[in-house]
Amino acid sequence: MKTLILVAHPTEQDSGTQAFLAQALESANSSEINRRVLTLPAGGHFNAQQEMQDVLAVDRLVLQFPLYWYSAPAVLHQWFEDCLLSPYKEKLAGKELGLVVSTGRPSHEFGLGQRQGYSLSELLRPLAALAIDLGLQLLPPLVIAQFAYQTDQQHQQLLVDYQQYLQLPAGYSFADQEKWWIEQLEQRAAQTTDPKKQQILALLADQFGTRSDRLDDLKDELALIKQVEEGDEL
Amino acid sequence: MKTLILVAHPTEQDSGTQAFLAQALESANSSEINRRVLTLPAGGHFNAQQEMQDVLAVDRLVLQFPLYWYSAPAVLHQWFEDCLLSPYKEKLAGKELGLVVSTGRPSHEFGLGQRQGYSLSELLRPLAALAIDLGLQLLPPLVIAQFAYQTDQQHQQLLVDYQQYLQLPAGYSFADQEKWWIEQLEQRAAQTTDPKKQQILALLADQFGTRSDRLDDLKDELALIKQVEEGDEL
């Protein structure tokens, strides 16, 4: 699955969040994912043909931006205006649209009666309408609230969440996530030349695999118990 | 009441809707209303101090724009980013925020299960959140759907609706609208030198006044009937 990340940020160079996400992407080490920062050309307009070339080549487009006045930054709106034109926009149907949205306010402030008044689902309605219009499959947004105030552990979790958001299929399950972990560990084991590291990574991958199998067993047992309780024939 | 209209339109010069609204404003002939088209300076950024000077001087700010990809045009987002900063944004609390939104699609297409999927109230959530944030009193938007397809009669109605939207107090009633009509007729009668026109305009104003009085009488009668039916003492 080919993925393109379009970063829209008025001061991308100064953003700790964007630097972290760029690093996370690098450590994912995937040839299937490209990242591009939207920079308005000197004339004030994007070149649609140039811009849409790599958008049309991917299966998943990820728009990555901080919430500015409860909306995407102006540069992304400009990109929409300049690039989502015929004959390109008609060719987008069927692709996936991901949103990686960072906010300066804590998550709990977005909601009815809260300080920001509306939920993020409500505030992102224009992008949901855009997805409907273009026939894109909208993925649940990955929200990053107050990155600068997050703990190291939260940052670790974000790194994993972000990599999974970019790489896993739409509507991914817990099992998909586990498979992803095993692949990651095996990949890292293959890349390292240190035999001790290799051993540890192989052990971790094995543990994950065992855990997955045990989970499957537990699920089967649960299904069995339910059947018995409901008096069904075995 | 001082009002400032900020027009955000990528190709304002070519817009029939904007030309019509500019004309309607001119015919309102009010010294209390100013209109400005947002034009991005060569550097790509607005000057906050310069821009906010006349915003801070008004009681009502009206943002007037066509819906672009279910949102305001990029130039308005840029204006927000560049201008809604300290120490200006803190001084906006208490002012009114009006929205004059034109759409290329018919009104009935905006809603659950309809072609555009969401109502305009939903799509304009980011501006509602902005109003909450800044302490602005949001007025119900004036929506202009498919101006180019409207009949002459609909354009006439729009002219009146627009002038009233700009001039009447927030939450205006039917009585406010009638008063507005009388003032308009009297004003026009005072401006003309043609005695025949003066007579007709005075007559119309008188008729409006009589109609208003009769409506008040009818309301009193209705209240009386209700009281009798409910068995209250008179």
From TrEMBL, chains A, B:
This protein's record includes keyword Cell cycle: no
SUPFAM superfamilies: Flavoproteins
Domain Flavodoxin-like fold residue range list: 1-166
InterPro entries: Flavodoxin_fold, Flavoprotein-like_sf, KefG/KefF
Presence of the UniProt keyword Oxidoreductase in the record: yes
Entry keywords, A to Z: Oxidoreductase
A Pfam short name: Flavodoxin_2
Name listed for the protein in its UniProt record: NAD(P)H dehydrogenase
Organism in which the protein naturally occurs: Ligilactobacillus pabuli
